[in-house]
Amino acid sequence: MTWTVGLRAAGAGLGALIALWGLLPVFTGRLHAGCITMLLVGALLMIVCIRFAEVSALVARLWSSVGGKVALSVLAVVAAVLIVLFAVVSVLMAKAAHNEPHEEATLIVLGAALRGDQPSKMLRGRLNAAVDYLEAHPQAVCVVSGGQGPDEICTEASVMYAYLTQKGIAPERIYLEERSTSTFENIAFSKEVIQKNGLSTRVAVVTQEFHQYRAQQFAKTAGFAEVGAVTAHTPWDLVASYWIRDFAGICHMALLGT
């Protein structure tokens, strides 16, 4: 009996850890589907472990009826499908993050949240990755892509431009796209900038690991000749919830195309 108590305690602790990890992005002002999913999963695991006897009795009562058997079976199948789908998509996401870029690619640096007139931690990671690539490839140029959100005082692209020039990137190597409000628009509007200025259609998307697959799929759909990745490291406190959020985004893209 002792080992079952210990197992339940470990499960409850794991649930609390998952819920708290899901809460971390909230402290930076970002509540999204990934946060909510982790909170729900963590809370459910804690309830099951802490109230194991009551949950077992409820499952037994449901299983004793035909309707209950059907409902529980459907839930089990849905859960299994989601787990398998998440695993498969996660492999694709991880692979996309390591998609080597062309040596003189046109970078598309995707925008992210601002903190006043300064880039957030997530956006700084993307910009620093872009700086590393641009310094290593002096002939390459970039498009900084991001409009002005409802809680932002300026466009993301203008802040990105200022950051890159402060890091020593020549202004003539930076093109601004200041209308987009989503990843789909980042790619679509950046393509207009690239075509207007006669830039190379061999592109590399600059964003975090979790975001590369979806952004690259949009770029491929937009008709770019070659699509690579310049990947920024995701902060540990954000990676789990954002990975789940982008999984949901990929499912939405597969169903609706955006």
List keywords for this structure.
5-stranded parallel sheet; alpha/beta; 2 domains; 9 helices; single chain; elongated; Rossmann fold; 258 residues
Question: Helix and strand layout, with pairings?
Answer:
Elements lengths: L1 H22 L9 H18 L1 H12 L2 H31 L9 E5 L3 E2 L2 E2 L1 H16 L5 E4 L10 H11 L7 E4 L5 H14 L5 E7 H13 L4 E7 L3 H21 L2
Parallel strand pairs: 1-4, 1-6, 4-5, 6-7
Antiparallel strand pairs: 2-3
Number of helices: 9
Question: What name does CATH use for the topology of the largest domain?
Answer: Rossmann fold
Give the uncertain stretches in residue-range form. Answer: none
CATH architecture of the largest domain, by name, is: 3-Layer(aba) Sandwich
* Strand arrangement across the biggest beta sheet: 5-4-1-6-7
Mean pLDDT: 93
**Strand content of the residues, in percent?**
5-15%
Structural class: alpha/beta
CATH level-4 homologous superfamily of the largest domain: HUPs
Element pattern in H and E:
HHHHEEEHEHEHEHEH
Cα distance spanning the termini: 52 Å
Report Rg.
Answer: 22 Å
Helix content range of the residues, please? 55-70%
How would you describe what is shown here?
With 258 residues, the protein is α/β, with parallel strands linked by helices. It folds into two domains: 1-64; 106-256, HUPs (Rossmann fold), CATH 3.40.50. Helices cover 61% and strands 12% of the residues. It contains nine helices and seven strands; from the N terminus they run H-H-H-H-E-E-E-H-E-H-E-H-E-H-E-H. The protein has helices at 2-23, 33-50, 52-63, 66-96, 121-136, 156-166, 183-196, 209-221, 236-256; strands at residues 106-110, 114-115, 118-119, 142-145, 174-177, 202-208, 226-232. The strands form two sheets. Strands 5-4-1-6-7 form a five-stranded parallel sheet, with helices on both faces. The chain has a two-stranded antiparallel sheet with strand order 2-3. Strand 4, helix 6 (156-166) and strand 5 (174-177) form a beta-alpha-beta unit. Helix 2 (33-50) packs across helix 9 (236-256). It is elongated.
